[in-house]
């Protein structure tokens, strides 16, 4: 790698323009490029000894012919790991989606000296908007350019102390660009939080503690919000007893101010105590007595916070909607995805090795624990709900860290009772921190691999029933991300339907306890980092089935 320092930015350039030949004895990681049989290939994730090909599940993607024109129009395309960052935070700029017979890639950051290379990592030491320009040149010396803006904000510490008299404009001067007034006014307590209302067909579930009740309990001044949020003069004091302390806590832990500002409409209603979870349908009214957990993440993950929280796109601008709903749109725009739910016998999936060996499916590295694992501090619980033929595996998680995390793009996998692909479309996401059950609901990318005996991990070979490996990725749309968020000390959960009378299969308390313990112990939660869609995990386990709610 070449490291270059230029005024106001430091740049690391990677990705050789003439990659080496693929070598079966070499270990490659995601982003590495090689030449093989006349084509340039790029590794999707960690791989060793697997020959590049276009077969489904292969760890390589074909980029273009070696040294030859692609036959495509010359076009410069910039992909960014983030469009809003904090001071000294890295942004990866990737030109690999550019098309044409490209000879050189040249990057310019603001008006500084250019840097060449397919991929560039940039960090900034000043706040404000910074312009990134990519120029690609073909072998005939024709050029094409693209331009994007990186917004750099202050670091998590912010400037000045927050007080009850601090206004949202003083706290976050760009509050209008992030639609803070719209987020407040679109979901005012008492106007959009009816306990029996719903969105997305969740009419059977009620909210136990409504937003209107919380606003009264926490002394939120609703008139002040209506009168002062649009011009930015709304003070933290008007937001009641909760928002200021949460904002101080999140800021002290490094959460970006733009994220805190967009969470304020929920932070003013966020309790200190843990709320009881709500489930779909009868929930715990029809459930096994046997439950598992709480099981803390056995890999003891360090504090986790996401810096690249998306814009909420309340005005529905096309580019902002693509950013907000990027996971949701991926399946709609990528032909690899399907909705046939027949994914039950893919024994080549890396998910099987993951469950057998407690290793990460994309990197092959140990997950670092021997029970439930995650890449953020949390606890896992497992329950079974249902009666007759309507049963759900329930995975209930609690955020045990002092900061929130958004759940878009999160991948959850576990070992559970086989469903044989029958009712994978039935399920739910639950979170008390939203005005009504349906707001913030996701679509899901979901697979099930029904295991032969030889694929069952040895620790669970004694369970006398067919088992399956499951994986789910959450994909939200059309909803503020403050409803897609796991808050400190609070629960969120997913339910996946199992079309079997499970009590008949597991007819003793001992058998039932064994099953829920297995679900909790084998679960893993992989939160998305840097708005990367968790693509490496999705590709490694071929998580290409989309389920609509």
From TrEMBL:
One of its GO terms (biological process) is carbohydrate metabolic process. GO terms for cellular component: extracellular region. Residues 11-29 have a biased composition (Polar residues). One of its GO terms (molecular function) is carbohydrate binding. Keywords: Hydrolase. Residues 10-29 are annotated as: Disordered. Coiled coil: none annotated. Residues 74-159 form the PKD domain. This is Chitinase. It comes from Haloferax mediterranei (strain ATCC 33500 / DSM 1411 / JCM 8866 / NBRC 14739 / NCIMB 2177 / R-4).
